[in-house]
Write a structure and sequence with these properties.
heterodimer, A: 230 residues, mainly alpha, MetI-like fold, 9 helices, 79% helix, B: 344 residues, alpha/beta, Alpha-Beta Plaits, six-stranded mixed β-sheet, four-stranded antiparallel β-sheet, 14 strands, transport (chain A), AA_ABC_Transporter_Permease (chain A), Metal ion ABC superfamily ATP binding cassette transporter, membrane protein (chain A)
């Protein structure tokens, strides 16, 4: 039988290639779009966490408490539960609960806090002496953010974004379970439910290739930007 | 003119209060190189941070040209800081920027347009001797070169005051001298007031005209570098002077012990020459004056300070006891300080 044994991985004529291409595209753009939003949100949240960390004002303390709380909560909820939990919110926000568009809010909400923590840690790695030097030149807090924190931590921010993007790819596959589209959905629907192991294998290989590309591009970028060592 | 008036700085710790700076009074004139020396934890850096408005004094006031730093609004403080350049022990350059971009940074912050920034940076790169390295990154430079970038950056906004916070402490002795020479050159060329914070007496002696010695948050001794070198009052000052004067103090005392063993009848003395005295043949005149007198040279050194040179010579006098004593009298009569270390 076609659905049994190792042979079942190699029934390539059972693969619907146009559906596979469609699913690949959906995975790529779901990941790309949510990563862009995650990067922007994550940097803003990370900056808020960093700036409010050691400030004494009451307002800063409240900001730090609120942001930390939200970040910790959303980082702790397992993705598969989060996506179900957010169904009503998604429906109101994007008007549907199926398809790649519907996956984006939950992807962002689960990955942004993760990235925000990385961003905060990266900012803390920036040399205090350099920050003080800029202040002693008469720099404002904005000067510190745009001329020191961001440029000096860019390589670390990119490495963090690479890691986040790769976990986003696996989240998109999980989102397939509730009908998000993409390779995870295809592997679940055509592969698992229709007992077509070849589809599962091909989807897996494509996902691996995407991950590999993301990792390589990220590493190359970091290498090009990082001027800390010769 | 910088004026510290009864400045105190206290930090509240969990259970106690730490006094970092205690009742400091200092006046620093325009165009002067003023050294502040002390071991780590003496309060030097706190003093400088207060001068730059990075921290406020608990009591007392710090004035630059009559303006009380602690009373400025944050906007006024930022524009005040542009008139104070600062160089640091660890250079604090941005590794993500080229040399040129690092030097342009204070100008960017001051809102100078691109064309002018470029011209100014080029001039400064030439002043600190880094022409041709404009587009390199800090990681491609040696420590001394990085500090040159730091100096160029500190000068970008044409400051009135340059603060050097342990700027040579991470450099080797030769590079230290090069950087100190550069600071002297800048001081003369631009008539810049330089505040030199350090724990090395060598740096003070080479560049500063006045010095304040700090210990436990207090200024324990202050005055002309030349005077302090000749005649240190406090124990800590003596220690600093000796460290610089005679880094081989242990070797010296061993040599003296040996000489005394070999020539038990000689008298060991230390002569201190000041200014033009160090260029006169005092010792050879002394030998000719007293017939029985002979001598062993144990150790000698000469140091340049901004106020003139100071020489020191350790001798053992041999000969009749009368002539030995007369020789010491003779030295005193020509105003050479003679300290008897061992009477034989």
């Amino acid at each position: 039988m076609a659905n049994q044994g190792i042979q079942s991985y190699f029934q390539f004529n059972n693969v619907n290639w146009s559906a596979m291409r469609q699913a690949t595209w959906e995975t790529v753009w779901m990941t790309a779009l949510s990563m862009i939003i995650v990067a922007v949100l994550g940097i803003i949240l990370g900056l808020l966490l960093f700036e409010s960390r050691n400030k004494s004002g009451f307002g800063w303390k409240v900001i730090n408490w609120v942001v930390s709380f939200l970040v910790n909560v959303f980082r702790s909820i397992p993705f598969i539960i989060l996506i179900v939990l957010l169904l009503p919110f998604t429906k109101d926000l994007v008007g549907t609960i199926i398809g790649p568009k519907a996956a984006i809010p939950s992807l962002v909400i689960s990955a942004a806090p993760f990235y925000a923590r990385m961003v905060e840690a990266n900012f803390r790695e920036v040399d205090d002496g350099v920050i003080e030097a800029v202040k002693s030149m008469g720099g404002t807090n904005w000067d510190v953010i745009f001329k020191v924190l961001l440029p000096e931590s860019t390589p670390a921010l990119i490495s963090g974004a690479t890691v986040t993007a790769i976990s986003l790819i696996s989240y998109t596959a999980m989102a397939g379970a509730i009908g998000s589209g993409g390779l995870g959905y295809l592997a679940y629907l055509d592969g698992f439910q229709s007992n077509n192991n070849t589809v599962t294998l091909v989807a897996t290989v494509i996902i691996l290739i995407i991950v590999l590309i993301v990792q390589t591009v990220g590493d190359l970028l970091v290498k090009k930007i990082d001027k800390r060592t010769l | 003119m910088i004026r510290f008036k009864n400045v105190n700085k206290k930090y509240k710790l969990d259970k106690s209060i730490l006094t970092a700076v205690k009742d400091v009074n200092l006046e620093i004139n325009d165009g002067e190189i003023f050294g502040i020396i002390g071991y780590s934890g003496a309060g030097k850096s706190t003093l400088v941070r207060m001068l730059d408005g990075l921290e406020a004094p608990t009591s007392g006031s710090i004035e630059i040209n009559g303006k009380d730093i602690a009373k400025l609004s944050s906007k006024e403080l930022r524009s005040q800081r542009k008139k104070v350049g600062m160089i640091f022990q660890h250079f604090n350059l941005l590794w993500s920027r080229t040399i040129q971009q690092n030097i342009e940074l204070p100008l960017e912050i001051a809102g100078v347009d691109k064309e002018q920034r470029h011209q100014k940076a080029e001039k400064l790169i030439e002043l600190v001797g880094l022409k041709g390295r404009e587009n390199d990154y800090p990681s491609e430079l040696s420590g001394g070169q990085k500090q040159r970038v730091g100096i160029a950056r500190a000068l970008a906004n044409d400051p009135e005051i340059l603060i050097s916070d342990e700027a040579t402490s991470a450099l080797d002795p030769q590079t230290t001298d090069e950087i100190l020479d550069l600071l002297l050159e800048i001081n003369k060329k631009l008539n810049l007031t330089i505040l030199l914070i350090t724990h090395e007496m060598h740096a003070i002696r080479k560049t500063a005209s006045k010095v304040a010695v700090m210990q436990d948050g207090q200024v324990v001794e202050t005055g002309d570098v030349y005077d302090i070198f000749q005649n240190p009052q406090q124990d800590i000052t003596k220690r600093f002077v000796n460290e610089d004067d005679n880094p081989n103090a242990k070797d010296l005392s061993m040599t003296v012990d040996e000489i005394i063993k070999n020539y038990p009848n000689g008298m060991v003395i230390r002569l201190t020459f000041k200014g033009t005295q160090s260029q006169q043949p005092v010792v050879s005149q002394m030998i000719r004056e007293f017939d029985s007198l002979e001598l062993n040279i144990v150790e000698g050194s000469i140091h340049q300070t901004q106020g003139g040179s100071i020489g020191s010579l350790v001798l053992q006098l041999l000969g009749t006891p009368e002539d030995q004593n007369k020789a010491v009298e003779y030295l005193k009569s020509v105003n050479v300080e003679a300290e008897v270390i061992n009477r034989g």
